[in-house]
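ok new one. same drill as before - structure tokens go in, u give me an amino acid for every spot. 378 of them this time. try not to just spam alanines like last time pls lmao
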């Protein structure tokens, strides 16, 4: 987009477009403010109209010599279109040939701007232009923002406004057919097994708003925790956006800031490979089980991406064929004793404030034959 933000008398404006090995330059100098006749004064005033100047700078138009003091470079560029939107010209290649554009003016380069692919300052973007135009705004370190994308759209008043959007040419959707399904209760006492609705990615790109880590991995457990849908996959715990149940959302709503309700996707930290198998609510936290280690996910007050913490709470070998089950202040899980099975009782020692898991079947080590496949508490 070529944007003539301001025009002044006796000022030179230059547009340089390079397409392949060809370079096209157009320079226009506006008229002086002092003229000999009233007619020339009126022409000088019209020469500093930004929309008229933008049209003269478009390479597929003939510069209006009546309203310019000097013009050079009148070549039309092949395979390119220049569409006017007032003081803005939308420039497009019609044969997919890339091009570069440079602009400058003799007033400190504060009058004319060109935007292609990305911009450093959102406030410099024009107020109007081609509907649907997308551009990346590179992050400002002083604001602590990542790069983000904006699109020019029509608003309710018929004008135009820049809104945050998704990057071009990136995947936006999860495959609902390969994600957890839901069992819907019908009014006649029957049930329907159907796919679950998961929201699409609407803003950002693969860096600023990445896909959840369960993509391309097996989901090992499904649960609800603190108003969020939770999934365990590989070494990660993934929680959906808080309070969203009609269509679960695993993407950020904005990349400009971190919201308390944003999805959470964190990996456990340990010196062993710890594939998470099960999650059990426990003592106002969430207990996570791998084959050799137990982790505890906690958060102060409100669970958010900024407050979540996952730490090792205990290291006991577990047989996780059966999902651990909670009963009061305890969580029970199976252990493998060769040809027999045992049960450990996980609890918090109130005296030492440490987590422990006592094998409550140690006095009957050969009572349970084989492997525990299902556990229920009563």
């Amino acid at each position: 987009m070529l944007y003539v933000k301001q025009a002044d008398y006796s000022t030179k404006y230059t547009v340089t477009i390079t397409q392949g090995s060809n370079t096209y330059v157009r320079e226009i100098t506006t008229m002086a403010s002092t003229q000999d006749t009233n007619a020339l004064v009126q022409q000088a005033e019209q020469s500093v109209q930004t929309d008229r100047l933008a049209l003269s700078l478009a390479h597929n138009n003939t510069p209006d010599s009546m309203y310019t003091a000097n013009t050079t470079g009148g070549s039309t560029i092949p395979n390119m279109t220049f569409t006017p939107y007032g003081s803005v010209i939308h420039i497009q290649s019609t044969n997919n040939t890339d091009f570069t554009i440079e602009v400058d003016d003799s007033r400190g380069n504060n009058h004319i701007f060109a935007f292609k692919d990305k911009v450093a300052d959102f406030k410099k973007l024009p107020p109007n232009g081609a509907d649907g135009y997308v551009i990346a705004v590179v992050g400002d370190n002083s604001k602590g923002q990542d790069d983000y994308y904006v699109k020019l759209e029509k608003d309710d008043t018929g004008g135009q406004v820049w809104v945050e959007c998704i990057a071009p040419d990136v995947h936006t959707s999860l495959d609902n057919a390969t994600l957890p399904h839901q069992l819907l209760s019908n009014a006649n006492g029957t049930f329907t097994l159907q796919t679950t609705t998961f929201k699409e990615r609407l803003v950002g790109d693969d860096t600023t708003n990445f896909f959840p880590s369960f993509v391309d991995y097996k989901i090992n457990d499904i649960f609800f925790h603190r108003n969020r849908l939770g999934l365990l996959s590989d070494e990660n715990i993934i929680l959906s956006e808080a309070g969203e149940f009609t269509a679960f959302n695993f993407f950020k709503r904005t990349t400009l800031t971190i919201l308390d309700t944003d999805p959470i996707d964190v990996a456990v930290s340990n010196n062993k490979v710890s594939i998470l198998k099960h999650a059990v609510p426990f003592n106002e936290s969430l207990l996570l089980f791998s084959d050799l280690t137990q982790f505890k996910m906690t958060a102060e007050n409100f669970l958010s991406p900024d407050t979540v913490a996952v730490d090792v709470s205990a290291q006991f070998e577990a047989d996780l064929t059966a999902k651990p089950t909670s009963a009061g202040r305890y969580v029970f899980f199976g252990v493998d004793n060769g040809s027999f099975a045992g049960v450990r009782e996980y609890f918090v020692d109130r005296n030492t404030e440490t987590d422990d898991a006592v094998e409550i079947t140690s006095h009957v080590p050969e009572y349970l034959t084989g492997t525990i496949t299902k556990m229920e508490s009563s």
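The chain has a mean pLDDT of 91. and btw The chain is about 5% helix and 40% strand.
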